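Entry 12.
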Amino acid sequence: MKNPEDALTNLAGKVVTVTGGSRGIGKEMSMAFARCGAHVVIASRKLENCEALSSEITEKTGNKALPVACHVGEWNQCDVLVDAVYEEFGRCDVLVNNAGMSPLYSSLTEVTQELFDKVMNVNLRGPFRLSALFGERMANRGTGSIINVSSVAAAQPSPHEVPYGAAKAGLHSFTKSFARAYAPHVRVNCIMPGPFLTDISDAWSDQTLDSLKQLPLGRGGQPEEIVGAALYFASDASSFTTGSILKIDGGLIASAS
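Predicted 3D structure (tokens):
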């Protein structure tokens, strides 16, 4: 590369694993990584969605895309995902812990143990296990990047997402801990998105959608607007960045009283 800025979009030959990679911002990141030359592992609970996106990526970019069914809330399935990646490619250069969930509940007293555990398992336990497994192999190889995807709920939680906000706050802690645990060879950073208009937002109420007009940027984010941050953390452009948490929230937290 002639110029340092060229690193931002040069992922040629790298292997990137994206959990929750078949829809929403995970899909946008997967497509962007492939357009920049990476081979992409698309992991989510529904194999058919992973397969559909994998076919689209290969057709459009010519790069390999491996679909893997994986429920990251299940400890053993995390192990299976890692084995599948290394069996196919022999390495992983970038891990994106993007899978997440935040089920609705009518009141805090009606949050069941099953719901609470499910939220913690997907949003926190899964990223821990995957970061440990991938991170150790990356460290042994001498290079790697882990990107966690949290939420503004980690910093500004609401009564409607208490377990989710707590889990994502824990992911911030993991980001800093793993950045030290696998230094100096593995960089670990976090993207903290605000309200993005993905397929998930189709279920939002009119009141919620209308409230987005109060953000400094006056709207919700489009899925493709996550791409710049993802490429930065995945590429050598962020070679001196680790343990960082980057807000992409339309100014939501900055505008809070």
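Annotation: Helices lie at 24-35, 47-61, 75-89, 113-141, 162-181, 206-211, 227-234. The chain has a mean pLDDT of 92.
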